[in-house]
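Ticket opened by: R.M.
Priority: normal
Category: complex prediction / small molecule

The reporter submitted a protein together with adenosine-5'-diphosphate and asked that the result be attached to this ticket for the collaborator who will pick it up next week. Submitted input follows.
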Amino acid sequence: MSPSSPLLKVTGLQKSFGENTVLSSIDLSVSPGEVTALIGPSGSGKTTVLRCLNGLERPDAGTVAFEGGPAVTFGPRTSQRERESLRTRSAMVFQSYNLFPHMTVLQNVIEGPVQVQKRPKAEAVAEAEELLARVGLSERRDHYPHQLSGGQQQRVGIVRALALRPSLLLFDEPTSALDPELVGDVLTVIKELAEEGWTMVLVTHELTFAREVADQVVFMDGGVVVEQGPASEVLRAPSQERTRRFVHRLL
Ligand code: ADP
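Result attached by the on-call engineer:
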């Protein structure tokens, strides 16, 4: 149990697409420096949770609060400004990388810091070069995404997220589009970030990896959180039958 106050607290998050209720009422708490693995069957709402946190979807109801910021309660009267106050707190790494195809690696990484955050270009370039070096991609800075392997593109995706200096990193199945031989490099980078103390929420089917890096595991099914707790408990000795069936199939 962490003594510090949570970095992120989500209460009663709800989201429907038309008649389809995708998130019924999600509660989630993430402590600073903690890695949370969000697991569950396909279609259970995991990606939608990340997209709601990152402002890519608009929740119908619920409250999202980051440490040091205002709690934003969603509903018909939530302002654009309130939603944007959340957007800057997290950065997302997408399953299919989502790099801008017409921009070089360096341009992809500095786009957010320079265009959105209005940071000086020289500073953004210096930081981007440092981050690219860390993931072994210095010599690729002037390449275009199509000239890179999937694993390299995803490492650029991670660098692009880091360059935004978010409080929270969100990973949406970051290795599921990769050829098996490229998965390891990306998982190594994620593991190093976890060891450095980054706070992250990771949607993943890689339960072996989750067992290795996650502090907390949240199991979702049908738009609800069925079980959440320390990774060692949820993955090794789940208390719920639904979790048990899911975990035993994959581990
Ligand atoms: P998971 O990440 O657990 O696989 P998702 O969050 O991607 O689940 O999807 C949950 C459900 O929400 C699915 O039934 C999916 O079809 C639906 N859904 C997700 N995004 C949209 C959208 N933009 N419009 C309509 N339905 C959506």
